[in-house]
Amino acid sequence: MHIHILGICGTFMGGIAALAKALGHKVTGSDAHVYPPMSDQLAALGVEVYQGYDAEQLNPRPDLVIIGNALSRGNPAVEAVLNQRIPYRSGAQWLHDELLQDKWVLAVAGTHGKTTTASMLAWILAHAGYQPGFLVGGVLANFGCSAALGNSDFFVIEADEYDTAFFDKRSKFVHYQPSTLIVNNLEFDHADIFADLAAIQTQFHHLVRIVPGYGQIIYPEGEVAIAEVLARGCWSERRTMGPNGDWALQLEQADASQFVVTHGQQSARVAWDLVGAHNAANAVMAMAAAYHVGVSLEHAAEALAAFKNTKRRLELLGTPAGVAVYDDFAHHPTAIATTLAGLRAKVGSQRIFAVLEPRSNTMKRGVHADQLSAALAQADHCLMLQPEGLQWQVADYLPNAQVAHSVDALLEALLAQVTDGDNVLIMSNGGFDGLHQKLLARLQEKTA
């Protein structure tokens, strides 16, 4: 079968492409913006990718078109699919129909930490010999890809609450039918499709309703928004993480590079390469989910000792001219704050330059603008892009930040200040117009 994917370079759709290719289908696709790491994965798979959405890419006619949730009516390719009556489905529906119906699905949901936690869980299961399939919104460093079919009944998936497609406005995760469900946290996000937190909680309620009675829901104690969801109805086992929960965490190092996990009379010590209390909390959730399907604490701790974090999650890109350049996907105030806290614990008193692109729809609307100052408090200096079309003025909310109206201007402002021993944390959920590589190249020139 020839499957053509519209919006193929998104992390979810790129994973769909990898799975469809592994199933033996011919896969092509298109996107408006093509950038790593997904573009690299698609190229390695031999998937032909078209730039843009002209109708000609549907000639010859594919057997099925999978349409990403970023596309809507008026898009030339979408209109051609409808006018030519080409069969189409959403990525989430295709995944359910083709792969998940007969699997034990372990889903990781929540506002923050989904990618990292799902990556940890997939690696723990693989290390224990479970040979799981997985689809995660990032390239898993331990596997070198974002998705794989696996060779067992277990499938790990990052369960996103964003809507499914222009023709299916339910959250993607209601298609996954998990037997093990992690809910890391729950905050307001995606202001372009949700009116308020209550609207998001309704979608999570729908997700909880489809977890079977033998299934298990794992979540942190004390999270009011999650407790409110579960109060609307829960028919599955519950396991909590926290000081008084079923799973407890005790940090042995301030940077969370070593910690102890306790469950009942059992405990295990984890020593690993990651830092940040948020990552340690994610690890406990992953260990609890793996335990639900039979993996011991000891085996999980061994796996985490060899875990390498997903790309674009506090990823060290290089240290040219003695400047450590990190890339992170953070784009919500909570994620920004926890990422900075983790880096601060790692580098101590060294200077941190936080560089932020307000790219998500929620950020563009200024929904969280008044929270950014507190979120960036751990940084010594903040540089922020004021892109065209941003619906608020950065200077009004971050008076101490350096504001640039172009990536090139941002780059020059950064280069004028950083020196040996500094740390640059670049945060964006997009490509940031190649700022990462531009900075690395310019710093490298200083050492030539």
TrEMBL record:
Keyword 4Fe-4S: no
One GO process term, biological-process aspect: cell division
Record-linked SUPFAM superfamilies: MurCD N-terminal domain (SSF51984), MurD-like peptide ligases, catalytic domain (SSF53623), MurD-like peptide ligases, peptide-binding domain (SSF53244)
Enzyme Commission designation: 6.3.2.45
EC primary class: ligase
Keyword ATP-binding: yes
Superkingdom to which the source organism belongs: Bacteria
Pfam families according to UniProt: Mur_ligase, Mur_ligase_C, Mur_ligase_M
Pathway(s) this gene product operates in, as recorded in its UniProt entry: Cell wall biogenesis; peptidoglycan recycling
Keywords of the record: ATP-binding, Cell cycle, Cell division, Cell shape, Cell wall biogenesis/degradation, Ligase, Magnesium, Nucleotide-binding, Peptidoglycan synthesis
Single GO MF descriptor: ATP binding
Residue span, Mur ligase C-terminal domain: 312-430
Domain Mur ligase central: 108-290
Residues where ATP binds: G110, T111, H112, G113, K114, T115, T116
Catalytic activity: UDP-N-acetyl-alpha-D-muramate + L-alanyl-gamma-D-glutamyl-meso-2,6-diaminopimelate + ATP = UDP-N-acetyl-alpha-D-muramoyl-L-alanyl-gamma-D-glutamyl-meso-2,6-diaminopimelate + ADP + phosphate + H(+)
Domain spans labelled Mur ligase N-terminal catalytic: 2-97
Cofactor section: Mg(2+)
Function per UniProt: Reutilizes the intact tripeptide L-alanyl-gamma-D-glutamyl-meso-diaminopimelate by linking it to UDP-N-acetylmuramate.
Family named by the database record: Belongs to the MurCDEF family. Mpl subfamily.
Record HAMAP family: Mpl (MF_02020)
NCBIfam families per record: mpl
Name the UniProt record assigns to this protein: UDP-N-acetylmuramate--L-alanyl-gamma-D-glutamyl-meso-2,6-diaminoheptandioate ligase
Species in which this protein is naturally found: Pseudidiomarina sediminum
